[in-house]
Design goal:
This protein has about 260 residues and is of the alpha/beta class. It is built from nine helices and ten strands. It is about 35% helix and about 25% strand. It starts with a strand and ends in a 10-residue tail after the last helix. The relative contact order is 0.16.
């Protein structure tokens, strides 16, 4: 398997306190602490951890939104942290993101069709209306949905729009940041199934971020566990689920409810 994404000793710190931005001796909070891993082509790597563990910050580092991060973030061999504006634009076309909240992440003044057309307008593309409609259809929405606004959709339908928006520019890597956490369990399964179908059809790679290790188990080939900014364990899915090594991973697994509610 060819490595698509490689992180080497990535560190991201934030200033702490009101005067932090102007103080010469700033106190710093380390949100990402020496994180290293690889992600292969057509692979899904699940990153799991509690709120505040650094998962979303990690995704933003990969997108190049924190150029002051330390270490290396290599996408197809190109260091995101050293890329210029033109190079970053090309990377961001190839690396897209699905956001956690399927309502607040959509512009309420734009129709579903317009939302999916927007990345093509920003990053370039031809026949953008036709391509947006094709992508919405691929994600399970019908022609009757194209002209509707976000408030007219259910949570699951809104997230399908979010998936279509990420997919429309034909990326290679999708960063899915808690894409199912705001959805009912039955709808979560539908979105997971959709992502798996799209991966097979489009040869996609996923970095799938979640606080729920049971959800990650269903989609990931490998799982990485984050705690207080550190990647405390990473291994193939079965090894993590059946034979975890880190104490924090064991605690995450112990919190997963049994499939049979009568089990003790």
């Amino acid at each position: 398997m060819t490595d698509l994404l490689t992180l080497n000793h990535v560190v991201k710190k934030f200033p702490v306190g009101r005067k932090a931005l102007f103080s010469k001796e700033r106190k710093m909070f380390t949100a990402i602490d020496d994180v290293s891993f690889t992600l292969g082509e057509k692979e899904t790597l699940g990153i799991v951890g509690e709120s505040g563990s650094g998962k979303s910050t990690l995704a933003r580092c990969i997108l190049g939104l924190y150029p002051d991060a330390e270490g290396e973030i290599l996408y197809k061999g190109k260091d995101v942290l050293k890329a210029d504006a033109k190079e970053l634009k090309a990377i961001r076309r190839d690396v897209q993101m699905i956001f956690q909240d399927p309502y607040s992440s959509l512009n309420p003044q734009m129709t579903a069709e317009e939302i999916v057309m927007e990345p093509l307008r920003n990053l370039g593309g031809e026949n953008i209306r036709e391509k947006a409609r094709e992508t919405l259809s691929l994600c399970g929405l019908s022609k009757a949905h194209f002209g509707r606004f976000p408030h007219e959709f259910s949570g699951g339908q809104r997230q399908r729009i979010g998936v279509a928006r990420a997919l429309v520019v034909e990326p290679t890597l999708i960063l899915a940041d808690e894409p199912t956490s705001a959805l009912d369990v039955s709808i979560q399964a539908q979105i997971i199934n959709l992502l798996e179908e799209l991966q097979e059809e489009r040869n996609l790679s996923y970095l799938f971020i979640s606080h729920d290790i049971a959800v990650v188990e269903h989609i990931a080939d490998r799982i990485g566990v984050m705690y207080r900014g550190q990647l405390v364990e990473i291994n193939d899915r079965d090894s993590i689920m059946e034979n975890p090594r880190d104490d924090y991973t064991k605690k995450l697994l112990s919190a997963v409810p049994p499939m049979d509610p009568h089990c003790k």
